[in-house]
Specification:
- The relative contact order is 0.11.
- The chain has helices spanning about 20-30, 45-55, 65-70, 85-90, 110-120, 160-175, 185-210, 215-220, 225-230, 235-245, 250-270, 275-290, and strands at about 1-5, 5-15, 35-40, 60, 75, 100, 125, 130, 150-155, 180.
- It has 12 helices and 10 strands.
- Strands 1, 2, 3, 4, 5, 6 and 7 form a 7-stranded mixed sheet that branches.
- By secondary structure, the protein is of the alpha/beta class.
- The protein is elongated and about 70 Å long.
Length: about 300
């Protein structure tokens, strides 16, 4: 890896998955002057071709392995469920100085796959979760500003190489991210509560309304509050299928917490107890009024 004052310069980014997250990473890395060449691969050849046409990647690779050939930085921007197969496809060309990262929304399952496949080379892998995204998927929506000012959570394990962790921190800092470091277990528990459960609730609410005979009529009367609350229900189905399934234990635990809280509201309403209802609403209102995004440092 060559270097320039202030930031490392990578010879080649091997990008596995040229969609929104991977494409945005490549564009941001290029804009920061940190990479000389981006070689990309996607399962769909048309996606890889489109990424080249848009200037997201410089070279199309016919396979994940060839995208990694010659790369000193590798990013896996694939669904969580595809992580293990991707590691198997590229492991023979991952060297001791290669920095490998992912952008998956769950970490324990990804790390387990890395341990199984990379084995002695697992130290070059720095698990990462940038807290960024859009409801619109695809390389056409790739944006070099996607990660600017966002959090990225790194979840190194005991075998993660210190040098690789430092390089990962340099990369994300150069892209304008605020870095947090957590254990994989703490990460998955936290994001089950603040990301995965809210998505599941939004999906379920839309299904609950549209499953009624008058559902479409109800939706025609919805306003800005409903729009904002259900925005994330428009997220990519295949991506969120994998996220919810891969974090099932933590998600189910958070779902039970939510069901108890919902039951408390139902009980107050059924009992005709407006005072109890007001207490529940006030509790939530105060918590939301004092909450500030990124203000609380997660415990590892």
């Amino acid at each position: 890896m060559a270097s320039s004052p202030g930031s490392p310069v990578f010879e080649q980014l091997g990008l596995i998955g040229c969609g929104l997250m991977g494409g945005s990473f490549a564009l941001a890395l290029k804009r920061a002057g940190m990479v000389k060449r981006v070689v990309g691969y996607s399962k769909s050849p048309s996606t890889t071709e489109r990424a080249r046409q848009l200037g997201v990647i410089d070279v199309e690779a016919p396979s994940a392995l060839l995208a990694v050939s010659g790369a000193d930085l590798v990013l896996l921007a694939v669904p969580v469920a595809a992580t293990e197969a991707t590691f198997k496809a590229i492991r023979h060309l991952i060297g001791p100085n290669t920095l490998v990262m992912d952008v998956g929304s769950t970490k324990r399952e990804v790390i387990d796959a890395a341990r199984r496949v990379l084995r002695d080379q697992v130290g070059v892998f720095v698990p990462a979760h940038p807290i960024a995204g859009k409801e619109l998927s695809g390389v056409e929506h790739a944006d070099p500003e996607l990660y600017q000012g966002r959090q990225v959570v790194l979840t190194p394990i005991e075998r993660t190489l210190t040098a690789q962790l430092g390089r990962a921190q340099q990369v994300w800092t150069a892209l304008g991210c605020q870095i947090k470091q957590m254990s994989p277990e703490a990460h998955d528990a936290a994001y089950a509560a603040v990301s995965h459960l809210p998505h599941m609730i939004a999906f379920a609410l839309m299904n609950a309304i549209t499953g009624q005979a008058q559902g479409e009529a109800f939706l025609s009367l919805a306003g800005p509050g409903f729009r904002d609350f259900t925005r994330i229900a428009a997220s990519d189905p295949s991506v969120w299928r994998d996220i919810l399934a891969s974090n099932r234990e933590e998600l189910l635990a958070q779902s039970r917490h939510f069901q108890r809280a919902l039951h408390a509201f139902e009980t107050a309403i059924a009992a005709g107890n407006p005072d109890a209802l007001e207490v529940l609403i006030e509790q939530a209102s105060e918590a939301r009024a004092t909450w500030r995004m990124n203000a609380v440092k997660p415990q590892s």
